[in-house]
Amino acid sequence: MATFREYRDSVSILQIAEYLGYLPVRGKYTKARPVLRDTSGDTILIKNPATPSMQLYWNMGNSSEHGSVIDFVKKQS
User: Fold this and answer.
1) How confident is the model at residue 14 (pLDDT cuts 50, 70, 90)?
2) 20-71 residue pLDDT tens
3) Measured CA distances, 75 to 8, 21, 29, 42, 69 (Å)
4) 26 lies in which domain range?
5) What are the CA-CA distances from residue 63 to residues 27, 42, 57, 58, 59 (Å)?
6) Residue 46: beta bridge partners?
7) Are the C-beta atoms of 57 and 66 separated by less than 8 Å?
8) SS3 67
9) How far is CA 76 from CA 15, 42, 47, 60, 65, in A?
10) What are the counts of helices (DSSP H) followed by strands (DSSP E) for the chain?
């Protein structure tokens, strides 16, 4: 049975965002720091996209909204 840390380390903010309808922002999306936007205009930047255990996100429209995959999922509910 996997531990909580193992589950968290295998879940990518990028995958969750894409599942929720976020799409790459044309001209700003790079492998180093992807930028995604949803249909409401909410725009996020993903740091460390290749390493789920180290990924962080920042909401480009709200500087106080940022954090790990857990924080991202909390904000979506």
Assistant:
1) very high
2) 999 999 887 777 899 999 999 999 999 999 999 899 999 999 989 999 998 9
3) 16, 15, 22, 12, 10
4) 4-76
5) 22, 12, 11, 7, 6
6) 57
7) yes
8) strand
9) 14, 11, 18, 15, 11
10) 3, 5
